[in-house]
Write a structure and sequence with these properties.
Immunoglobulin-like; alpha+beta; single chain
Length: about 270
C-alpha cells in the first residue's frame, strides 16, 4: 500500500512538471484581430501623415462610437509617435431635431458637402471619417479607419509644415513656414479643443454625457502663394482654456482636396 502511494505521488509530480513545461513552451494565444490594423500601424513607424477629419454631431445617436474611435486614434498616435492629426468637425444639420450642438458650425457642414461634390455621387451623413482628404467612410468602422490611416502613413508627405505661435487670453498669433509642394494650394488652420464633455438634454442622445476629442473651434483657410510663409490671428473662444488648445495645420489641394503635409502645436506653453 505504501509503495503504491509512493508510485502514485511520483506519477502526479512527473505529470504536473510535464504540464508546466508544455504550458511554458507553448506559443501565446493569438490576440483578437479587432486591433490588427492598429497594431500594424503602431509597429511600422512610417514617414507619411494622416489627417483624420470626423464629421459628427451630438444630435446623432450613431455618432458616439465614432467619437470614441477618434479619441482612441488620438491616444495611439501620441503613444506611438505617429503623425496622425485628428479633427472633430461638428455639423449643424442635426440641430433642428431637438438638440443644438454647441460646437456645430454651418461652415463645417459646407466643408463636408464640398467633399461630397468633389467625389461625385457621395452622400452626406454622420458619422463620416475622411483621411487625407481622399477617402471617406462610416466614422465608426474601426478596421477601415486603421487600414486607411496605415495606407496614408505609408506614403511620404510632399510638404513640410512648421508652426509658431504666441498667445494672450483672447488672441493667438500664428506663424507658418512651408517647404516642398505648396504653391497654389491652401493651408487649412484649425484651433482645436483637445477634450470636451457635454451633458445632452434633448434629441437622440438625451440623458447621455458625450465625450469628444480634438473639437474644431475655429477654422480658417489660407490661399498659399510662392513665399511659403506668413502670419495670421485667431480668436480664442471665451469658454476655451489655453491649456486645452492645439493648432493643427495642413496643406490641401483646392480641387482634388488631397492633403500633402501637416503639423500641430500645443499652445499651453506659448501664452504670454
Amino acid at each position: 500500500m505504501k509503495n503504491s502511494s509512493t508510485f502514485t505521488y511520483l506519477l502526479l509530480v512527473v505529470l504536473g512538471a510535464t504540464f508546466l513545461l508544455i504550458a511554458w513552451i507553448a506559443p501565446s494565444p493569438t490576440p483578437a484581430t479587432k486591433y490588427k490594423a492598429e497594431l500594424e500601424v503602431a509597429n511600422n513607424i512610417p514617414n507619411g501623415i494622416a489627417v483624420v477629419e470626423l464629421f459628427t454631431s451630438q444630435g446623432c445617436s450613431s455618432c458616439p462610437p465614432a467619437d470614441e474611435l477618434l479619441s482612441s486614434i488620438s491616444e495611439k498616435a501620441a503613444e506611438k509617435g505617429l503623425a496622425i492629426y485628428p479633427l472633430s468637425f461638428h455639423v449643424d444639420y442635426w440641430n433642428r431635431l431637438g438638440w443644438k450642438d454647441p460646437y456645430s458650425q454651418p461652415a463645417f457642414s459646407q466643408r463636408q458637402r464640398h467633399y461630397a461634390r468633389t467625389w461625385q455621387n457621395a452622400q452626406v451623413y454622420t458619422p463620416q471619417m475622411v483621411v487625407n482628404g481622399s477617402k471617406g467612410f462610416v466614422g465608426s468602422r474601426q478596421q477601415e479607419a486603421w487600414k486607411t490611416i496605415e495606407e496614408a502613413l505609408s506614403q511620404s508627405a510632399t510638404t513640410t509644415v512648421r508652426l509658431g505661435a504666441s498667445a494672450t487670453d483672447q488672441e493667438i498669433e500664428v506663424s507658418y513656414q512651408l517647404a516642398g509642394e505648396y504653391a497654389g494650394q491652401q493651408l487649412q488652420l484649425a484651433l482645436v479643443e483637445q477634450e470636451v464633455e457635454t451633458s445632452v438634454r434633448r434629441g437622440e442622445n438625451s440623458g447621455k454625457k458625450l465625450h469628444h476629442s480634438h473639437v474644431v473651434r475655429e477654422y480658417v483657410s489660407i490661399k498659399l502663394d510662392n513665399s511659403g510663409s506668413g502670419k495670421m490671428s485667431l480668436m480664442l473662444p471665451d469658454d476655451m482654456q489655453i491649456s486645452e488648445a492645439q493648432l493643427i495645420a495642413y496643406v490641401q489641394h483646392p480641387t482634388s482636396l488631397t492633403i500633402s503635409g501637416a503639423s500641430s502645436l500645443l499652445l499651453e506653453n506659448v501664452i504670454q
